[in-house]
Amino acid sequence: MRIRFITLTIMAMMLIGTSLQAQNAAADYERQIVGTYAKKDMKALDRLLADYYKSGLYPVDVLMYNYNELQGMEDWSVIVVSSAESLIGKLILQRVLMVHSDKVIVCTETGGLDDAICNRLGIPVPPKTWKPEEAYEQTIRWVAAHGDRKVYFPFTDSPLFKQFPDAMKECIYNEGLTMRYSATPYDNIAVKIRNLEERYLTDYLRLSLQPYNEKKDQRLYRRFTPSMLALSYSAIYLDMLPYYREHKPDKVEWLEGLYSACQTHYNHLTLNKFYNTGQ
User: Fold this and answer.
1) In this predicted model, which residue has the larger pLDDT, 272 or 160?
2) Which of 20, 49, 94, 275 could, after both became Cys, cross-link 238 (CB 3.0–4.6 A)?
3) What is d(CA 41, CA 116) in angstroms, rounded to the nearest whole number?
């Protein structure tokens, strides 16, 4: 019931937002948002985030993807992201739509573990000697070592895309749209099933709430388009299909339907050559 209510609330607010006139181009909003966030001027940040959301310039599908990333995490956990592109949507969710505000976002592109974030997490401020190329890895390790919150990072920052040391890879568990860093082994298959069946909001994949036009997308950070993010959903569905075929055959049609929706409405690609489909 709670998930259905949140779904309807977010969809309604999004549809209202798309009807309002934009005061500035999306790139201008994002440039100001990132600069204001780095300065920790939260009152100005909230005004910018609200205006940006109401302008309708931020793609609904990308916002929903950010929602699902946070939705699959445990309460009061931390997500470490490597770019402002992963930050903006989550800030809109937390500070405008007031959902998942308990989760702490650490963005290594916009200051990382600064005094304010470390104070909120109750951990010491890290040394200033990290090299830029090792800051992301070290940030994940630092939060895990000094705090008691679960630590996540986006699938788009996973070992598929970043070069993590082998020792660190042994502590990384895929939970769907996010990866969790844990020195203690656990059953991540069960978590992926929970996220797929209970937590992720995926009806919009079938509906495509807001047709995406790349030429009209004026965002400053637009590497993560709806079609690119659909690749992450497709990866999860293809990853889990062998398990579902063996252990949950009654759910196979549902899972295949979501994968098909991603292919039809979004990326029009096949990932069979990259992932074992169990066929």
Assistant:
1) 160
2) 275
3) 12
